[in-house]
Amino acid sequence: MAQYQSTLLDNAVREFSTLPGIGKKTSLRLVLSLLRRDAGEVRRFANSITELRDNIRFCKICHNISDTEVCSICGNIRRNKHLICVVENIQDVLSIENTGQYTGLYHVLGGVISPMDGVGPKDIEIDSLVERIQPEEIEEVILALPTTSEGDTTNYYIYRRLSEMNIRITQIARGVAIGNELEYTDEITLGRSIVNRIEFKV
Hints:
39% of the residues lie in helices and 13% in strands. It is an alpha/beta fold. Strands 4-3-5-6-7 form a 5-stranded mixed beta sheet. A two-stranded antiparallel sheet has the order 1-2.
């Protein structure tokens, strides 16, 4: 028997509750809100999700989310092409962009090194970062990974890979609290941590 006296409602609530941060109560509220909307609106909502899943791409250069082969940041001639900010995920790109303090390029690793979780250097986009350095004439790499033990391990590994190259390696200032993820850091603090970045030291 359906929990909400309707199998269709029960199924919809269950699917919404699989999303991160969405519990059963919030899921029910969202589903009921959709039911109150015009049928055309709901179809547009559903189609946008289907289109997103079917057609979204990842930039072949930086691995950021994109509608095209090369994302709008990598393709923007006004960006500083000599500067790469290395981040863990796409949310971090959005967070840094919202500060308005950074005008360079990005490189999305898609994770951090975490032996406990079975994630090694080959499981994330470190090799492709190294391959970008010389052809793109990069002068500085900013390490903007989480201030956790996994983030620090990844920073150190990247530093070792890049240390033989003639580039500046920096990291965001520690205005970001230990253990914090960038997406949960306020824009002013994050912006300052980028502007006041420091030389990476082992």
